[in-house]
Amino acid sequence: MAHAHGHGDGRGRGHGPGPVGGAGHASSGTGDAADHRRRLAIAFGITATLLVAQAVGAVLTGSLALLVDTAHMLTDAGGLLLALTAAQLVLRPASNRRTWGFRRAEVLAALAQAAVLLAVGVYVLVEGVRRLLAPPEVPSTELLVFGVIGLVGNLVALLVLAGRRSASFNLRAAFLEVLNDALGSVAVIVAAIVIATTGWYRADAVAGLVIGALILPRALRLLVETASVLLESTPPGLDLDEVRAALLDMDHVEGVHDVHASLIASGLPVISAHVVVQEGCFADGHAPRILDDLQRCVAERFALPVTHSTFQLETPEHARHEPGHHD
């Protein structure tokens, strides 16, 4: 028995429920992917329209808050376009070269969005401090008008994305970006009201800093989560110590090692392990039943169900001299 993680040969290894070879993985959930794409397309259309309107407003008013919100919206429009492209790529079938298809495209797109948001947030903070020291005059009426336009548009986009915002990294990233835009529009409106009623022009810079403060924590969180997927960290909701204990507790299992778990994309966790079983299980034909029990265990017993699992069944003798053995 070779030391490997892969699909089964009918004796010592096996894969969890789903088509062999991965072809079914990219096509599963195609209806969801199409719905994601439709929602992203609507949100992109709204954001692109608002981007043009706010760019005009930023030029007319010279407002930092509106300029920053426009720059933020530009990154959002680009991020939504990336997300829309990734949602399209997800629909492409798997192949022998790309056994998971383009499922990771959504993770890469979300990572890019997070990186751009982080850069925008840093710029906002730097420019906001500079304008606090030397605040320019900003026309409050125009600022208020463009702030209201931005808020209404963002609320519509939020309604489009809200229903499925937890369904994928892409939709979550898009929802956070549009939410930040909506909060940014609120900050612009508040700044316009303060300037109109008190003449305190630093309110514009304060609004810009508030927008930056809203951007940075969410960008960092998304950056960490997507980087964790690319590093193939154990998915949240799956404790490998609990998995090992559950597998060891099963009949005829004498040892478990080389346990690996990762997340290919949203909703697609995978796990593999080498499981040492009693020698007689291969002789009396009991091994296939053990394999079924192992797959059922990881699919049903934990907070995060894993329906794609790969187990290599080994004899105690093989486990003792297996190269690269680790827990």
CATH architecture of the largest domain: Up-down Bundle
How far is the first residue's CA from the last residue's CA?
18 Å
CATH class of the largest domain: Mainly Alpha
> Could you give me the name of the CATH homologous superfamily of the largest domain?
Cation efflux protein transmembrane domain
The low-confidence parts are 1-29
Q: What integer is the average pLDDT?
A: 78
CATH topological fold name of the largest domain: Alpha-lytic protease prodomain-like
Helix content: 55-70%
Number of helices: 11
Helix-strand makeup class: alpha+beta
What proportion strand? 5-15%
Series of secondary-structure elements, N-terminal to C-terminal: EHHHHHHHHEEHHEH
Integer count of domains: 2
What best-fitting shape do the alpha-carbon axes yield?
Answer: elongated
Sheet with the most strands?
4 strands, mixed
Number of strands: 4
Strand order of the largest sheet: 1-4-3-2
* CA-atom Rg in angstroms: 26 Å
Characteristics:
single chain; 327 residues; disordered N terminus; membrane; transmembrane; transmembrane helix
Task: Please outline the helices and strands.
Layout: E1 13-15, H1 23-27, H2 30-61, H3 64-90, H4 105-133, H5 140-162, H6 169-198, H7 202-230, H8 240-248, E2 253-265, E3 268-277, H9 280-283, H10 287-300, E4 308-314, H11 316-321
Parallel strand pairs: 3-4
Antiparallel strand pairs: 1-4, 2-3
Helix pairs in contact: 2-3, 2-5, 3-4, 3-6, 3-7, 4-6, 4-7, 5-6, 6-7
Domain Cation efflux protein cytoplasmic: 235-314
Transmembrane segments: 40-65, 77-95, 107-124, 144-162, 174-199
Biased composition (Basic and acidic residues): 1-12
